[in-house]
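From the thread on structure requests for the teaching lab: each student submitted one protein with a one-line request. Submission from student K.M.:

"Model Phytanoyl-CoA dioxygenase from Hymenobacter gummosus, tokens only."
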Amino acid sequence: MMPERRRPNGAADETQVRVSTLRLRRSENRSTYSTMKVNINNKAVEYRIEGEADAPDQQVLLATAQDLTAGTDWAAQGYTVAEFLPAAELQQLQRGLYQLVREFMRHAGLAVADDFDISQYHHAVGDSKELHLAVINQIKEISQTRLPLPASVLEQRVSALCGRPVQALNPWDNGRWFHLRIVRPNQPDNNPLHRDVWLPDYDDCVNIYAPLAGSTANSSLTLVPGSHWWPESRVVRTRGGAVYNGVAFTVPAVKESEEPLQIIRPNPAPHEVLVFSPYLLHGGAVNLNADATRVSLEMRFWPAD
Ligand SMILES: [Fe+2]
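Reply posted by the TA:
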């Protein structure tokens, strides 16, 4: 039987949330800052994390969960990059999702033409936190009925990569969702370094990252290979949602690490997909592109057998 671990409002995704300046000031007074120093593809990156530390624990979360990487030739690293979909289906998916992004931008009050290049999102939104939030509040959890392809097409491909049947149905909340991520260049739009399973309802799945626009060696998703088997004590995390470079997120984040974390960007090409364990440390994928917003598709899959 599934334990009772429902998300409070049915929508606690790992994304950015609105936070009052008052709350930020309070957390500043509690002196809970950490400066994380990490290497991404051997380039030093520093960021600031606020949030009370959780008690360290020897537990390996994956040891008591279903590991969908088990038996694959990428089980040890916890991720793989592979061909995604046949060309016609991929084009249908990408073009449909570009239109969806344009729709969300219009809904946020922006005038967007049908041929607007979504990698230029940052020019349309500018530095406005409010406008960006108005867009991303619509993309945290999107019903799979809005996918430009039947979800079964993606389920079939991810099943082949995992070597077992999976489905994009979350057994913890019976939701069928997908997510879009939009990260402007040199803005704190990306979520901080975390495991998905630090949030409720994400156990036992695999996650995918599919590039849609502006996804490059300087902007694509980052992860720590092999960290899905690390004990919790190997890093220090925040107890609750972290404040990352002054922006609040619902997901807890790594705030300290004794060893320098070696983070990589697997950087899937436009026709490829990155499949990864939600138990891996990932995120903190600052967009270092000079002039392109990164837009990507994220979707999770659970055992179907
Ligand atoms: Fe995540």
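TA comment: Residues 14, 194, 196, 282-283 surround fe (ii) ion (CB under 6 Å). The radius of gyration is 18 Å.
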